[in-house]
Automatic annotation (TrEMBL):
This is GP-PDE domain-containing protein. InterPro entries: GDPD-Related (IPR052271), GP_PDE_dom (IPR030395), PLC-like_Pdiesterase_TIM-brl (IPR017946). PANTHER family: LYSOPHOSPHOLIPASE D GDPD1 (PTHR42758:SF1), PHOSPHATIDYLGLYCEROL PHOSPHOLIPASE C (PTHR42758). It comes from the Eukaryota. The chain crosses the membrane at residues 6-24. Its main location: membrane. It catalyses: N,1-di-(9Z-octadecenoyl)-sn-glycero-3-phosphoethanolamine + H2O = N-(9Z-octadecenoyl) ethanolamine + 1-(9Z-octadecenoyl)-sn-glycero-3-phosphate + H(+); N-(5Z,8Z,11Z,14Z-eicosatetraenoyl)-1-(9Z-octadecenoyl)-sn-glycero-3-phosphoethanolamine + H2O = N-(5Z,8Z,11Z,14Z-eicosatetraenoyl)-ethanolamine + 1-(9Z-octadecenoyl)-sn-glycero-3-phosphate + H(+); N-hexadecanoyl-1-(9Z-octadecenoyl)-sn-glycero-3-phosphoethanolamine + H2O = N-hexadecanoylethanolamine + 1-(9Z-octadecenoyl)-sn-glycero-3-phosphate + H(+); 1-O-hexadecyl-sn-glycero-3-phosphocholine + H2O = 1-O-hexadecyl-sn-glycero-3-phosphate + choline + H(+). GO terms for cellular component: endoplasmic reticulum membrane. Residues 38-308 form the GP-PDE domain. GO terms for biological process: glycerophospholipid catabolic process; N-acylethanolamine metabolic process. It comes from Sphaeramia orbicularis. Keywords: Hydrolase, Lipid metabolism, Membrane, Transmembrane, Transmembrane helix. One of its GO terms (molecular function) is phosphatidylcholine lysophospholipase activity. Belongs to the glycerophosphoryl diester phosphodiesterase family.
Amino acid sequence: MCAAVYVLSTVTGYVLTSALLLKCPNLLHRKRRGHFLSRHISHRGGAGENLENTMAAFQHAVDLGTDMLELDCHLTKDEQVVVSHDANLHRSTGINANISDMVYNELPLYRCNLDVTFQRACICAGGEDKRIPLLSDVFEAFPNTPVNIDIKVNNDTLIKKVSELVVKYDRENLTVWGNASNKIVKKCYKENPRIPVLFSFPRVLQLLGLFYSGLLPFVPLKEQFLEIPMPSIITKLKDPDRLTRSQRFITWLADTLLMRKALFQHLTARGIQVYIWVLNDEEDFQRAFELGATGVMTDFPTRLKDFMDRNGISKPQ
Ligand SMILES: *[C@@H]1O[C@H](CO)[C@@H](O)[C@H](O)[C@H]1NC(C)=O
Ligand SMILES: *[C@@H]1O[C@H](CO)[C@@H](O)[C@H](O)[C@H]1NC(C)=O
Ligand SMILES: *[C@@H]1O[C@H](CO)[C@@H](O)[C@H](O)[C@H]1NC(C)=O
Ligand SMILES: *[C@@H]1O[C@H](CO)[C@@H](O)[C@H](O)[C@H]1NC(C)=O
């Protein structure tokens, strides 16, 4: 008798959870209305086609019709918000100095060639534009293009200044910001809850816990963007022979746990966009869209655009 009740309640619970997860995810949560939806996202402006995070890169991506620019922010000594990936300028300019120790006008120019982090053995040869831009330059040049801002330092002034710029340029509805660190995302949210945030790494783990335990449909979420890597690309970035058995296993496990169509369907039905980074090959673009990702971040905006055109993956309305 007891066993029968147990089985019945388990089955009921399972059916209820599945129904809420996939069939009616909006029964408990009103669908969030985003102000933009991005399929084509240019990582650092498209680091494979122009020097990363330069105005030339952003202009090229916007000319191609990208839906969103992804970029990284730091603060200079004179408290200017600049668009640059690394805290230290050595890799990108050849000068061993930290951005936080230099005033904006002293910042060196980029090297002529930069490595592309997410494409093995690839160096990007830049054009004329080697300047590290201000965030305000980007906002001024592209007033209508959504921007994804990675806050690279846990610095309250940086967070405050970015929020001020977003407000000044009237972009609260055209921005998402955050970092893998939950401390930074919490500060961002506290500074200006009207700017959407992404899931930090600890929150991604929590999300997976909720998903696999069946609790996800019952839990409210403050984040509006899930931005995750496709773990399988690690085997392309590294020499496959140099990955140990356990590294290969962990990659496989992470890929299997994260790349879940049911998870993406549930989140997108709740109005949470899913972006996958950083994909540079057609087979990965295809896999991401087949899994139901909202958008793909790429270093090669032209390649992604060609793929989308050929496969009829349309620009969001
Ligand atoms: C840059 O900052 C890091 C971390 O704060 C520090 O360890 C390093 O010495 C600094 N580099 C230079 C060149 O000042
Ligand atoms: C934030 O950055 C500014 C400028 O680089 C620096 O002066 C300040 O000390 C930093 N604040 C913290 C809390 O690290
Ligand atoms: C952003 O969207 C909200 C909700 O639609 C609207 O009330 C608000 O005025 C918008 N903000 C700006 C700065 O356009
Ligand atoms: C997040 O911020 C940390 C500093 O707290 C920085 O080292 C890291 O590169 C950032 N990571 C991402 C993915 O933005």
